[in-house]
Amino acid sequence: MSDSFVVFGAPVLEQEEIDAVVETMRSGWIGSGPRSAAFEDAFSDFKGGSGYPVALNSCTAALHISLIAADLSDGDEVITTPLTFCATVNAILHAGLKPVLADIDGETLNICPREIESKITENTRAILLVHFAGRPCEMDAIMDIARRHDLIVIEDCAHAIETTYRNQPAGTFGDFSCFSFYVTKNITTAEGGMILCRNEADAARCRVLALHGMSKDAWKRFSDEGYKHYQVIERGFKYNMTDIQAAIGIEQLKKINRFRAARESIWYQYSSAFANLPIVLPAPIEEDMEHAYHLYTIQLDKEVCGISRDDFLMAMTKAGIGTGVHYTCMAEQPYYQKELGWSPQDTPIGTQVGRQICSLPISAKLSAGDVENVISAVRCILN
Ligand SMILES: *Cc1c(COP(=O)(O)O)cnc(C)c1O
Questions:
Q1: Rounded Cα–Cα distance for residues 186 and 157 (Å)
Q2: pLDDT less than 70: residues of the chain
Q3: How far apart are CA 176 and CA 198, in angstroms?
Q4: Pairing between strand 77-80 and 98-101?
Q5: Which atom number of ligand 1 is nearest to the Cα of residue 185?
Q6: Domains of the chain, each with CATH number or no CATH
Q7: How far apart are CA 40 and CA 249, in angstroms?
């Protein structure tokens, strides 16, 4: 990679993270242990002390375990958005459930409450929503639907650690909420995730599911408290977070507001620089929400701006700027078409957005010069 290439989603890693990893290694306990527990506490504090956290090795794991702990039956339907990462849909399938897409709102790019309602059948048991790009979903309407139809709500908060909706943090509405600390996310542990459970019993179950289905506190079985027998009480998984990951996470969490402020500043620089270009910018942020500014997405319609999305992506790479596509509509993916019979016209808005959308770099790692380079590349390609 050339030195001047602006990497998409580059993490900010500083001396504190490096020191924390070294200290963890010197401590001799690198698996799940005291630092994972401390990271859980710090994370739940950040969320206002609401909910019961379980640290895991990815958000994908968090989604999978949530769907199992939700105690649904094989074939039950889970309504989700077509504009998401495939992990959201795969987790539903791996839990033995049936994903059903409800189209997005063309403005907010979040799942549309009216579409959710229209997809409810007698087999619907849950809604798995995504706060896309860090913008909160319409939680009043969605929680109302969930109450009326007695549905479990799971929030995919992979973009939305800092998001709030009407002063309530994202991840504190649903029965389960899933967070990601993947490299490109708002804070990172290299790989990592967290479930925030609404109730304590669910969190205890998730903890068991995340460690082979072994009974309570099995991670301590090699500690100085002496060997403890465990019992296998579930068909569990290997999804626990290590203390090396948690050590990075603890330091990253201390910086979360600084990182968000940096992305917010880039967001507004882009929005004013691109205001007159023939492209669709992210919907304006409303007063009753805090946006997490995880993605800055633009939409390119070749008929309007003269260049296709894919040609734009190539031109950006040539200009030394890394970009992303979040996301090609799930109904366009061949596996789901083959196995679930999905087709692009089932969710026309998601399909169109997925064909025209492109994410520009917005990481806190970007220098002022990087941001200027992105702006001039976009302007130059579109002029
Ligand atoms: C990144 C992401 C995931 C998966 O997160 P991992 O931690 O990489 O497993 C799930 N859903 C969405 C919306 C994401 O952006």
A1: 11
A2: 1-3, 218-219
A3: 6
A4: parallel
A5: 1
A6: 15-254 (3.40.640.10), 256-382 (3.90.1150.10)
A7: 10
% of the chain with per-residue pLDDT over 70: 98
Q: What is the pLDDT of residue 228?
A: 80
Amino acid identity for residue 339 in this structure: E
**Whole-prediction pTM value?**
0.97
Q: If we measure between CA atoms, which residue out of 147, 145, 155, 194 comes closest to residue 175?
A: 155
From the CB of 218, is ligand 1 less than 6 Å away? no
- Ligand 1 in reach of 177 Cβ (< 6 A): no
**81 CB within 6 A, ligand 1:** no
Cα–ligand 1 centroid distance for 85 (angstroms): 6
- Whether residue 67 contacts residue 206, with contact meaning beta carbons closer than 8 Å, is answered with no
How far is residue 20's CA from residue 244's CA, in Å, rounded to a whole number?
8
Q: Using DSSP, state whether 83 is helix, strand or coil.
A: coil
Q: Which of 266, 270, 372 is nearest to 319 (CA)?
A: 372
Distance 87 CA to ligand 1 centre (A): 6
The C-alpha atoms of residue 46 and residue 188 are separated, in whole angstroms, by 15
Q: What is the residue type of 132?
A: F
Ligand 1 center to 56 CA (angstroms): 13
Active site members: 185
**For 140, how many CA atoms within 13 A lie in the half-sphere containing its CB?**
5
Q: Whose Cα sits closest to atom 5 in ligand 1? A: 59
CA dist 347 and 356 (Å) reads: 15
**What is the per-residue pLDDT for 1?**
59
CB burial class (10 A; 0-12, 13-18, 19+) of residue 123?
middle
